[in-house]
């Protein structure tokens, strides 16, 4: 079979139909079995005990290989969200977190002026205000 990597390089693997996915990983990637992910016909080969014959992998088939971070490395780099205490100030302040409330306040102020100073708003301005409000509503509710 052919092992194809993300950088379009290929390696020929000599295997028997009775070999398992786990044996293929240990034979060609010793010490990196947990980091390697095999994909055949769009399916991730997760069951290490399945034989190549049971997966219908025959002569000259291509298995796509992806080397990922090890599970232990990912666990040390990424904190567990269940055990991580929230910051004292809650959400971190940033432009993304303040955008929705800011637009809501601006729309509220414009609607206030629209109701109290109708003479300043033409029909196209009113239609535009309604359109912007509806668009923002879809975006805000879609995010949350």
How are the secondary structure elements laid out?
Blueprint: E1 2-4, E2 10-12, H1 21-28, E3 36-40, E4 43-44, E5 62-67, H2 71-77, H3 95-116, H4 123-143
Parallel strand pairs: 1-5
Antiparallel strand pairs: 1-2, 3-4, 3-5
Helix pairs in contact: 3-4
How would you describe this structure to a colleague?
By secondary structure, the chain is an alpha+beta fold. The chain folds into 2 domains: 2-67, Ubiquitin-like (UB roll) (Roll); 95-143. It is 40% helix and 13% strand. The protein contains 4 helices and 5 strands; from the N terminus they run E-E-H-E-E-E-H-H-H. It has helices at 21-28, 71-77, 95-116, 123-143; strands at 2-4, 10-12, 36-40, 43-44, 62-67. The protein has a 5-stranded mixed β-sheet with strand order 2-1-5-3-4, with no helix packed on it. The longest helix is centred in the last third of the chain and has 22 residues, at 95-116. The model is unreliable at 72-89 (pLDDT under 50). Residues 1-64 form the Ubiquitin-like domain. One of its GO terms (biological process) is ERAD pathway. The chain crosses the membrane at residues 98-115, 121-141.
């Amino acid at each position: 079979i052919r092992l194809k990597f993300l950088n379009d390089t290929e390696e020929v693997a000599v295997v028997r139909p009775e070999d398992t996915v786990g044996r293929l990983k240990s034979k060609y990637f010793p010490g990196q079995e947990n980091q390697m992910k095999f994909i055949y016909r769009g399916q991730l080969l997760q069951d290490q005990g399945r034989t190549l014959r049971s997966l219908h992998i025959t002569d000259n088939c291509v298995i796509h290989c992806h080397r990922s971070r090890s599970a232990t490395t990912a666990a040390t780099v990424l904190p567990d969200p269940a055990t991580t205490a929230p910051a004292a100030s809650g959400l971190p302040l940033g432009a993304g977190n303040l955008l929705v409330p800011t637009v809501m306040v601006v729309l509220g102020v414009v609607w206030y002026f629209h109701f109290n100073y109708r003479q300043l708003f033409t029909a196209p301005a009113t239609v535009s205000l309604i359109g912007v409000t509806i668009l923002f509503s879809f975006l805000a509710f879609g995010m949350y």
